[in-house]
Amino acid sequence: MKREEIRTTVLRVLGKIAPEADLGSVPEDAALREELEIDSMDFLNFAIGLHDAFGVDIPEADAPHLASLRGCLDYLAARLDAR
Prior knowledge:
Helices cover 58% and strands 0% of the residues.
């Protein structure tokens, strides 16, 4: 899967968690929780949404990799390439 496809899917999942957010303006290195003002339950739902969308297991210990958009893209690209 190409990085742009991963990005589109990640933003779609984020849009379900934070529908009022302007996702097009989220900097790749910004902390998603602070940038989108989402709480820990929303972040958990985000990780679950990524699991559902990509079919990859995301252990709780890997949650820090999802802290930014760039981190999500790098993490998911590596996980998807490893399959």
